[in-house]
Design brief:
Number of strands: 0
Structural class: mainly alpha
CATH class of the largest domain: Mainly Alpha
Radius of gyration: 20 Å
Order of helices and strands: HHHHHH
Shape: elongated
Number of helices: 6
Distance between the termini: 23 Å
Helix content: 55-70%
Length: 124
């Protein structure tokens, strides 16, 4: 992945965290993009362009990191948006693995169908 793509993905992670934090405090979703731009000390138009793929310069990357309380070069390193699994999730995955391995082809299809019916993303 290229540096511009990494920076864009990471700034979108920061925006997601910002929105989640504001939502948990009861903020209305309307206008959060402008509030995030304000936090970064950039215009709402610039934030819109960044979301659409505008390249984030080195100077702007350091400004974003500073305004979001991240260490220098945080924006340049691939960050994970996935939360770490908790013990309950690990137990579930192990249980699912044992159940799947214990089944024949029909049973494996039935388990897959159950997961798909309950909103699991379909991967081909």
């Amino acid at each position: 992945m290229s540096l511009p793509a990494i920076r864009r993905n990471n700034v979108l992670i920061l925006f997601g965290d910002f929105v989640a934090e504001r939502a948990s405090n009861g903020a209305e979703p309307l206008g959060l993009a402008a509030k995030f731009a304000e936090k970064l000390q950039i215009s709402a138009s610039m934030w819109s362009q960044i979301k659409k793929g505008r390249v984030i310069s080195d100077k702007l990357a350091r400004q974003i990191e500073n305004r979001c309380g991240k260490e220098p070069l945080w924006l340049d390193a691939l960050q994970s948006a996935e939360p770490l699994p908790d013990p309950g999730e690990e137990r579930f995955v192990e249980l699912a693995r044992r159940a799947y391995r214990a089944q024949n082809a029909r049973g494996k299809r039935a388990l897959r169908t159950i997961l798909l019916e309950h909103g699991a993303p379909q991967k081909e």
